[in-house]
Design goal:
Keywords: ATP-binding, Lyase, Nucleotide-binding. By secondary structure, the protein is an alpha/beta fold. About 40% of the residues lie in helices and about 25% in strands. It has a 6-stranded mixed beta sheet, sandwiched between helices. The protein has a 4-stranded antiparallel beta sheet with strand order 2-1-4-5, covered by helices on one side. The structure holds adenosine-5'-triphosphate. Adenosine-5'-triphosphate binds next to strand 2 and helix 2.
């Protein structure tokens, strides 16, 4: 979808309607619960953080939402469309044009054998761009936006540092102008100073592009900085959700209290 069409689609969505509505989402692995009874709404331009200990169901939920696996029960509505009832072709189109997915490991979201410029340009071609000069100019612009020097455009990501690879993955994901971005621990595995820079960059892009984001993380500092709202998961279920500051400063559930206090002790 072109930029004008996206703007038209955005204008056509009633303001009061959430961009994404999730209702009673469940996914089991045999007898084990992956996630159960998850419901929430997210509006345009809103950032939702999902936190919880290892095994609490964060990744299962994110992959069900992004269409990487099929939930056993529940409903996902995106801009008024029933996502689970869509044909595979329509869902793929949605993933390519309206959605983006930032993996924790940039290797999972990049093509390591293709140049940095190619990684970004390829996404534009996937949504119909054909003019080589324009594609290269857009790729060049996006490398600049994620603070990668222009003279690295023909380098492969394998020659980049971890932080640069992650910034390149972000450029590759955002170049097509998605409205909803799924992020799985985007700052995981990076040095603290690199994390801080990446978070700053992400915050600016999210604000400038008015993105809706669902971000899974172990790190409460990440949600404090990025997320408007927070959802706390334990054993596959949502135990608490609300405005980020409210949940972190005045946690109601004993598990959230534990999560917050264990971070404060570090
Ligand atoms: N492919 C799978 N097969 C069987 N069980 C699984 C599978 N993936 C996840 N699970 C189980 O589902 C539950 C939720 O796991 P999930 O990976 O979603 O948690 P998480 O919060 O993302 O954990 P982490 O932070 O460690 O990634 C766990 O009990 C896990 O063992």
């Amino acid at each position: 979808m072109g930029q004008m069409e996206q703007i038209a689609a955005l204008a056509a969505t009633p303001v009061a309607l959430p961009l994404l509505q999730v209702d009673g989402l469940c996914r089991n692995y045999g007898a084990r619960i992956g996630c159960a009874g998850v419901s929430f709404d997210i509006h345009a331009g809103e950032v939702l953080g999902i936190v919880g200990e290892s095994g609490s169901g964060k990744s299962t939920l994110l992959s069900c939402l992004a269409g990487h696996q099929r939930p056993d029960a529940g409903r996902i509505t995106y801009a008024g469309q029933d996502v689970l009832a869509m044909s595979e072709a329509d869902r793929r189109r949605l993933s390519r044009t309206e959605w983006a997915y930032v993996h924790q490991n940039p290797r999972d979201g990049l093509r390591m054998g293709v140049s940095a410029g190619g990684n970004v340009g390829e996404r534009l071609m996937a949504v119909g761009a054909r003019n080589y000069g324009q594609i290269r100019t857009r790729a060049h612009d996006w490398l600049g936006r994620v603070e990668i020097a222009a003279d690295r455009i023909d380098d492969r990501p394998s020659a980049f540092s971890g932080g640069m690879q992650q910034r390149l993955q972000i450029a590759r994901n955002l170049v097509t102008g998605p409205r909803l971005v799924f992020m799985d621990e985007p700052t995981g595995g990076l040095d603290v100073s690199v994390q801080a820079r990446l978070l700053d960059l992400l915050r600016g892009l999210v604000r400038d592009m008015g993105l809706s984001v669902i971000i899974v993380t172990h790190d409460l500092a990440v949600v404090r900085l990025l997320a408007d709202r927070l959802m706390v998961m334990k054993s596959g279920r949502v135990v608490e959700q609300g405005l980020t500051d409210q949940v972190l400063d005045d946690p109601q559930h004993a598990y959230t209290q534990l999560l917050v206090s264990s971070v404060l002790q570090v």
